[in-house]
Amino acid sequence: MSTDDNPLPRSVIRPNSFVLLNGIWNFEPDADNIGLTEQWQQAHAYKHIAHWPGSVEAHMAKLQPAQASWKDRVVVWYERLFTVPESLGASLNPNSLLQLTLGACGYETRVWLNGILLQTIEGEEVHRGEYTSFSYELDAALLQPENRLTIRIESTMDADTPRGKQESSVYKRGGIWYQTYTGGVRSIWLETVERNRLRSRIGVVSVIEDNLVRLNFTTRIHDAGMYTIKLQVFNRAEPTALPVATDEYALFIEAGQKKQRLVIEIPDAQLWTPENPHLYRLVAQLQDATGYSAQIKSSFGLRKIEARGRYIYLNNKPVYLDGILYQPGLADYELIQLHMHAMKKLGCNLVRIHIAGVDPRIYDLADKLGLLLWVEVPSPHRSSPKSRENHQAELLRMLALMGTHPSIVIWSLYNEDWGAQDIATNPETRKYITDMYHYLMIAHPEFLVVDNDGWQHISYEGRLKSDLLTAHLYTANLPKWSELLDLFITGRQSGVAAFPLVVGDPFFFRKQVPLVVSEWGGFGFVEYGGPNDNQERSRQIQLFKAELRKRPIAGDVYTQATDIEEERNGLIDFATGALKVPAGLLASPL
Asked: Could you name the domain of life of the organism this protein comes from (predicted)?
C-alpha cells in the first residue's frame, strides 16, 4: 500500500472514519511526581503547551534550554479538549464504537477520559511499552458534548527497560549511546470501529511451493455467535481488477479476543523478491449472522526465507545479503523515506534497523522498494528476570503488528549481549533466549532468528540457537581484515570477534550454518578508525567488500547509513538523503 492511502502509523487500513488528535496540547512536567496525588486528571491549571506528536526531550528543551536532558526519571502530563466530530458521531450505531489509539507512547502511559481512567483493549490501566501502538475502546456513556483527554507519561533510566541505544543508568550518553527519545512520539487518533471486528494485526506465512498463504487473524468480539470471515486477494498494482483468489470460513467465535489461522490458495502466485517486489492486496471481512460486516485491508507478499548449510535462500534460491546498518535516531518519516531510497541506491538489498522502534510505515516502504529488513528488539541494558520479562513483552507486541511484511526476514533477540551480559555464565539467561528462539521457530517460521548478534551465540547440546552465525568485525587494516575473515570461515570461535562466537555447549561449525559479518567498517568513527575522506573511504570499502565476496560468507552489513550524534561514519547525508559516496558502492559485483 502507498503511504498516501494510509496516513496512520500502521499497516492495516479500515474504511471507517478517523480524526487525528495531533496538534497543540496543554503540557506540564511533574518534576516532584505529585500529579497522581493531587489528581491532575480531575483538574489542573496547565502552564505550558506542547505539540503531539513530539518527544518529551524536545518539549523540555524549549522550557529549560540551559539544562541538560532529564536524569533518572521524568513524568509529564498532556491534556486537551475535543468534541466527537460529526464524521465519527454520525456513523456511530449499535454495531459501532469509538476507539482511541496512540501510535507509540511510553514507557508507562495512563489515559483518562473526562477524569475516568481508561483500560486498553488488553485490560491495562498502565500501558508499558514504547515502540508500538495501543488502543482504548471508549464507552459511549463517558462521552460528553465536549470531552477532556488527559495523558500521564513516565519514563526512567531503568536498565531493565527495553531501550535500545538510548542512555540508561548503566550506559551513559556519548559514543554509541544516545539521548533518550520518549513520550507521545507518534500520531494519536480517534476512529469508529465495529463492536465485532478483525483487529489491525495480521500474520502472513507463505507456503510458496503450494501457492498457499497462511493468514493469522485476531478477532475482537463483544457478541458471541456465528460469523463468516470472507477473504479477497487482489494484485495490488491492479486496484480495479477482479480478485485473484477468494474464500470464506464459517466459525463460532466467543466474546473477547481469539487468534484464528485461515489458509487461502493463490493460483499462479507471483513471489516477492528485491528485484520484483510483487505485492497482493488483502480485503478481509468479518460478517455476523445478520449480514453486518467489518472490513480491513492490508498488503502482503509471498516469499520464503531459509538458512541451509552455508547459504541463505530466498524463495529457494541462494541470496547474498548486501546490507547496511540503519539507526533512524530522531528522523521523522519524511527523512526516513529519503534514507531508505538512498540505501537502495547504494546497492543494498538489506537494511538492518538497529535495536530501535520505528514508524511502522518504514516496513510498508521496504515492501514496495524491495528492501529486505533485519529488525531487532530494543534491548534492555541489564540482565535480570525483570529485564527478560520486559524484553519478552516488547518482542510479542512488535511481532503482533509486523507480521504482514515480506520485507522483514530476520529478527535479532539481542545485540552484543546488551541486556544479556551474563550470557556466558548464567544458564537462566541462555534458557530464556533459547525459549524465545524456539517460540519464533514454531510461531513465526517466516523469519530467520539470531539469538545474540555479533558474538556469544548459544549452543545447547551442540545445536546453535541461531539461524545465522554472525560476527561484528571492526578493523581499518586490510591485512588484518583478511586474516579475521579467514579465521571466521574455518569455524574458528575465538580470536575472531571481541568475545568468543559461541557459548554454552561445544559447537562444531562444519559449514552447517550461514556466516554473516553483521557489522564492519564504521570508517570515520573515532572508535573504529579508517578514512574520514569520502573518496578514500569509498576506495577502502571497495577493497574490504572484495575480500568478503572472495569467501563463502552469506552476507555483510556495513556500519552505517547516516551520522548519528557522535557516530560520524554515515555514507548518506542525514538531512537530505544525498549519497556521500558513489551509487552502488555496497552492491556485490554481478
From this structure: Bacteria
